[in-house]
Amino acid sequence: MGWGTLITRRLKVFSLALFVYFDYKAVQKRVQWVSTVKKNAIWAKTHERNARRVLKLMIELEGLWVKMGQYLSTRADVLPEPYIEVLKQLQDSLPPRPLEEVCGTIEKELGKPMRQLFATFDVDPLATASIAQVHRATLEDGREVVVKVQHDGIKEIILEDLKNAKSLIEWIAWAEPQYDFNPMIDEWCKEAPKELDFNHEAENTRTVSKNLSRKTEGGSGGVSSDVDVLIPEIIQSTEKILILEYMDGIRLHDNDSLEEYGVDKKRLVEEITRAYAHQIYIDGFFNGDPHPGNFLVSKEPPHKPILLDFGLTKRISQSMKQALAKMFLSCAEGDQVALLSAFAEMGLKLRVDMPQQSMEIASIFFRQSTTATEAKENIKALNEQRERNAKALQEKMKLNKKEVKHFNPVDAFPGDAIIFMRVLNLLRGMSLSLELVHSSDMTIISHGCFSFIPAGLSASLNVRIVYLDIMRPFAESTLLGSLTRGPSTNSEWIYDSPVNSEVESKLRSLLLEMGSDKILGLQVCAYKDGKVIIDTAAGTLGKYDPRPVQPDSLFPVFSVTKGITAGMVHWLVDQGKLKYEETVADIWPKFGTNKKELIKVHHLLNHTSGLHNALGDVVKTDPMSVCDWEEMLDQIAKSTPETEPGSSQIYHYLSFGWLCGGLIEHASGRKFQEILEEAIVHPLHIEGELYVGIPPGVESRLATLTVDME
Q1: Domain-by-domain residue ranges, the chain?
Q2: Among 374, 417, 460, 515, which is disulfide-ready with 370 (CB 3.0 to 4.6 Å)?
Q3: Rounded to the nearest 5°, which phi and psi values hold at 543?
Q4: Chain centroid offset of residue 396 CA
Q5: pLDDT tens profile 239-255
Q6: Which residues are catalytic?
Q7: Tens digit of pLDDT for each residue in 468-521?
Q8: Residue 567, Cβ neighbours under 10 Å: how many?
């Protein structure tokens, strides 16, 4: 491919990008002064005409742009409905390459004339894709095969297209900072060239086929890896030719044939999902490009899925595999601490500390799918959730409406996770053929970590799939495999640290007797006469976290700060900063409202302030408000006592910590954590080991609490 062709392709790409961009900008200004009904109609026409422009150029340029169009056509969460409908045409076969070119490539690669290679060779291709086209043939020994032939000159085109795509994404990020897709294109630039070597694809196919034929025990009652799918056998390969076993199948788009053959669509989608759960969580080696063209359904009962095209595969490390499994299971359990820990282990860094919103977004990836008839309401509900999250982000970061649109909450997104998310979205989103309600402005839903609305393969086949139930055993198998080993087989079950005393030696012997059946993970520390006599850590960080508990591991525990906060109040009395007989309102002026004027410091300490039920209603209406220190102190200041100060001693089960915390800050004129460190942390030499509230940056050290239902 000459320089002239390369420059022409680049000019066409950027000319269209500018044309579409300015078209949207013009329409954006135009619709400000029209009614909602007319505005929706204008946007619909704008989306359709630009989608057709994009489609026309993609078909003309072929190469990477067709592949990108195929991917975008599955992303109803990112693009307006007209784009999905128009770009869906790219899922069909492209115009075929000339037979002379095909035969020339085959003979050059295999070193023999066609007549010596094949008994028969179909002139018309079964399909033509962005990189290659596929012909049916019969070998001299009678075996029926398909021959995948790489397009002549496609390697140079793809590599140039990647450069153009990278430049285009960088320009979009500069022009519209809220649409920064650089991490995704960077990962694609790294992985896409691998598809251009069919020897690589052949080896990948053999590996996946071998992996899916193994049996693995693990999880709840064990997981069989005997996934019920078919993968064609590799016959021969070169860099540009791949010969595979022919399998007669039905395309996923062909609903009429699926109905005619009596295919159980629900079982079909479940089995495909199981196959990918196995590849990701058990093998750590998975196909990163599961679009509809890469699946067939066997015509013979029980109509198994046929998995095709393993050119773009991803191998992930054991630690990343465990982190992805931990992320999945933390969503299943609703465990925000474990989710943040999983993010840290994956290398996903956020610029904002919002556990609830992170949980909501991460859970969307694994949520139950909906049927086509339910999808509109589902999209509407998820859009409302997106708006709530944007509002929460705006309040958290104190941004105005314009600033929040340009704020990217993701600081670093690991490449391995990008491919993983892409697979989940393709599994949910391929072949979507529904009408979706979209916003009547030009906003594309961006930043997958904080606003994600995937659609569904199951929706296109009109079935409901509970992804959590299907994928959970595989994720559990990944994590529980190393947890099932008790002390007798795992010498590292008790963390290797010095024994400080005879009593600690006895404790460790007792722990080995009890074993992992009774203990998930623990830390024990004891002081005697100011010296540490026990400092033992054992077990693992959680039910779904196989990492060992270490002396610096952090356990998030509740209802234990009363002694700490009370101790800090006594310390301030010792320092002469306050007195037990002082009125709290004299120290904390906002506190002196709603009949709290007579409450004294000692009333707070001995549970006689009458504020035993303060915050109860707040926690019921918004449980996550306990994570907002200032909000809780404000609620305490507004509360009303239920009994006269000093008249009744009733356990202040929830309010005690914030009552003391507000008193500590106002009496000292300093932040709570500063006093905590001066009064307790530094004297005990436990820096980095005691926090009230989980600060950003320690998520990877956190253990995960598990309720023992027995």
Answers
A1: 3-97+154-194, 318-481, 486-553, 560-693
A2: 374
A3: -55, -35
A4: 22
A5: 999 999 999 999 888 88
A6: 289
A7: 788 888 888 887 664 444 444 445 689 999 999 999 999 999 998 887 677 889
A8: 15
